[in-house]
Design goal:
alpha/beta; Leucine Aminopeptidase, subunit E, domain 1; 5 strands; globular
Length: 121
């Protein structure tokens, strides 16, 4: 039986085909938390609040739950289209954005196997 991988609480480095997935805002003001880490370490671009940027992928989690639902669906589709990449999903939307963790986790329940989720998701 293989052990399931989980996104660690803190990511400081990535492998060559790894992508850091973080919660953002629509303006792409990546000033704190995982968003700041994405800028400092993984190529996220200030001013871009959505999608693939360098070795990171921004999900707008600050514009309300309907927006987060759309962003999560777009991300899951993107991950399916890129099985050659491994996506390390952080607990998007559950910190400063304030969304319920169970509700957010459910948005990623159908993510493909190349998406590594936080423990409990």
């Amino acid at each position: 039986m293989s052990e399931q991988r989980h996104t660690p609480d803190r990511i400081t480095e990535l492998g060559p085909d790894d992508v850091f997935v973080f919660g953002s805002n629509a303006r792409g003001a990546h000033l704190a938390g995982a968003a700041r880490t994405a800028v400092e370490r993984f190529g996220a671009v200030p001013g871009r609040g959505h999608g693939l940027q360098g070795r990171s992928y921004a999900i707008d989690s600050m514009s309300g739950l309907p927006a987060l639902e759309r962003e999560a669906a777009a991300f899951v589709a993107f991950a399916r289209e890129h099985p050659e990449l491994t996506f390390w999903l952080t607990r998007v939307g559950t910190g400063i954005a304030g969304h319920d963790e169970r509700r957010v986790a459910a948005l990623f329940a159908d993510a493909p196997p190349n998406v590594v989720r936080p423990r409990g998701w």
